[in-house]
Amino acid sequence: MSVIEFQEFYLENGLKVIVHEDHSIPSAVLNVIYRVGARNENEDKTGFAHLFEHLMFGGSKHIPNYDTPLQMVGGENNAFTTNDITNYYLTVPSNQIETGFWLESDRMLELDFSQKNLDIQKSVVIEEFKQRYLNKPYGDAHLILRGLHYTTHPYRWPTIGKEIAHIESATLEDVKKFFFGYYAPNNATLVVAGNVTLGQVKELAEKWFGPIPKRELLHQPLPVEPKQTEARKATVYRDIPFPAVYKMYHIPSYTEKGYYAADIITDILSSGKAGHLYQHMVKDKQVASSVRAFSWGAHDPGAISIDGTLAEGVTVEQYEAALQEVLDGLFNLPESELQRIKNAIEAHYLMDRIKLLNKAMNLAISDVLGDPELVNTSLKNYLDLTLEDIVEARKEYLRADNCSTLYYLPNNGNDKA
After folding, report:
1. Contacts (Cβ under 8 Å, ≥6 apart) of 226
2. Cα dist. 375→19, 71, 103, 364, 365 in Å?
3. Strand locations in 70-137, DSSP E?
4. In angstroms, what CA-CA distances link 192 with 31, 57, 195, 318, 323?
5. Residue 239 and residue 107: Cα distance in Å, rounded?
6. Are 277 and 293 in contact (CB under 8 A)?
7. What is the pLDDT of residues 316-365, one digit of tens each?
8. Is 324 left (phi over 0), alpha (psi -120 to 50) or beta?
């Protein structure tokens, strides 16, 4: 298996730089990852990390338009926000690499903090909130479920925020404080990958990022989510055609061994039509029209979610009984099934290493998790799992007293909750 080789160095302002040389194609990637996500927000002012993903494309101190100069040199860019990080990346022809350094460094230096820009981006985010969570059937299910499952930790709200009012009330003073407290060289990692050299990157990093001052960060210790000791349940009524059931279970963080066993369980349950949930609940029992499982891998203890929409005429009790049969089936998993999932994970892992952008992004994420070498070693955490590990994870995490359940039911004359 090919190893992703890299070198790293720091600037005096605290910016960590990782360089991966790949001279096979005439392209280069700049990936800037900031150690700030929704979990770092004040619970009365949520959605700021995601709002900043938008604000960062609205112009910076010396560059009023980010996209135009990048497009003029044949570049592309995008970004994403999670509860733990905010990640920005661009791809350019390698002979235009300095354009990327110029653009990203100016955004790190200071944004265009104008009321007009803030109002535009607030409107965009508010509309996104409505489309994804409020005006879409079943859209607010996980918004509610997070608040039920997490009582203390800031994972209890999604990246877009707890409510629209928090975005509506955001002021220029609020966003400036957030920016200078988190968007800092000493709170970021820059990964440069592609047809570049270490010496070239050192020179450009010093030139463009070196003058940015180190900043005092706003990071505070996060509250620890208490261990759940009893099942939690809630019911809401909405204008939907069929009932749905959403379940969430606590699992360890990315940095713990138990996470990998929990994550591979979701692949066993929900690997397309071969997954146990589809086979048993949709195809055989016909109690669900759709059902899926996925893990919320996170820097702090995350979760497994199992979402199902009931088939016509099926009761919640019938659905839950069938689901329990699937979960209990994990106690008797054949070795061949575990190996099938391992093979699929390994194939995806190898495919993911082909694209330059993926290599840069995975280096950045691995570094934020504590060690960029994880980009080369994380696969082993899956391949080393045994059937005993799966059984132990099933017993430890997929318990009723570790579960929060949201019953999402049609509003047939009931009051909405």
Report:
1. 151, 152
2. 13, 30, 27, 9, 9
3. 76-81, 86-93
4. 6, 20, 9, 53, 46
5. 43
6. yes
7. 999 999 999 999 999 999 999 999 999 999 999 999 889 999 999 999 99
8. alpha
Bridge partners (DSSP) listed for residue 80: 87
Query: Residue 283 has what DSSP assignment?
Result: I
Residue type, 417: A
Q: How far apart are CA 209 and CA 186, in angstroms?
A: 11
Cα(79)–Cα(57) distance, integer angstroms: 10
d(CA 23, CA 27): 8
Q: Which residue has the tokens 């200078």?
A: 180
**Residue 39 near residue 154, CB atoms below 8 Å:** yes
Helix (H, G, I), strand (E, B) or coil at 47: coil
Give the amino acid at 303: A
The owner of tokens 């003058």 is 211
| Residue in the structure block whose two tokens are 């004040």 | 42
Answer yes or no: are the C-beta atoms of 70 and 115 closer than 8 Å.
no
Measure the CA–CA gap between 290 and 233, rounded to whole angstroms: 21
Model confidence, pTM: 0.94
